[in-house]
Each structure stands twice: as C-alpha cells, then as structure tokens.
Design brief:
6 helices; 35% helix; single chain; alpha/beta; 7 strands; 187 residues
Amino acid sequence: MSKLLARITLHLAGWEIVGTKAADDKLVLVAAPHTSNWDLICLLLIVRAQGTKVSWLGKHTLFWWPLGPILRWLGGVPIRRDRPEAVVEQVVRAFDEAETLFLAITPEGTRRYTPYWKSGFYRIAKAAGVRIQLGFADYAQRRAGFGPAFMPSDDVRADMDKIRAFFADKVARHPDQVGEIRLRKEE
C-alpha cells in the first residue's frame, strides 16, 4: 500500500520517476544535488515507490525527541561529523554485518554551498566492496530516480568524471547553492 501511496503522491506533485535501482543487495546511493530538505522527502518517496528500503546518514543533532524515532523509522542513521574516519569504519562494518543495505549519502554533506564533495561515499563503497549508484532529483524537469551503478575503481578521477557527466544536466531546487562536483583530492 505504501508503494502505491508514494507513486500517487509523486504523480500528484508532478514528478516522474525514471530509472531503476540496481539489483544489488548492498550499495551506496549518491543522492545529489542536495540543496533542500525536500530532497530527502523526494528520495524517500522514490525509493518507497520502487519498493526499496533505504537507509541514510544524517547529522546527529537532527535526531532529537520526538523527531529522532521518526527519522530512524524512515531509515535515518545519526552520525557525528566531527570524526569522519570513524563514520567510514562504522558504515563499512554495517555493510559487513547486513544482509541487505541500500545506503543513500548526500556527498555535499550539507544543503548549503560547498566547494567540493566529501569523499566518504567513495571511501565507504570502496572499502565495503559495493557498487555506487547515482540518484537524483531534477527540479527543472520534475524528474527523479536512479541512474547508472558502477564499482569504484582505482582511478578516482575517472570515476568522478562519470559522476560529473551524469549530474551535469540535473538542476537542484536551489541552483545557487550547488558547488562543483569534485572531491578535495582526486588523485
């Protein structure tokens, strides 16, 4: 029932769902661009409409009572951003222990402008041995869904070139808050 309700909600809001989630039991979903809280709502509706359960990382300060239990029920996993190395290790361990894990990460790490993406999504996928799938919400065309999936290689720049090419025509809710798609270090 919730699958049908999600599809109806997206249709009534004028959104079209495109693409399909990779058949993998475990993967990292790059959810971009991220400039609004509406992005999370859109993501949750899309994955529900596709019949997929998604987990997502959020800063721990969002998980206060009574909102915290609701966010956890929606797949939220609170993280402390003051120790990013510990987050990667914790998430890789979760991938090892889970039978299935579809983890959405917003690589900007914030809704505000940032000059580069955080590399955690890439490092997590590489260390956990799972594919990266690209997910998007294009506010200009009112289209959202899933793009290609690929295994991260040893050539970070080439992988990021694939990601840049995919997101090149996707328009955020607040385009002025979108930074360049690049990692701080792309050796």
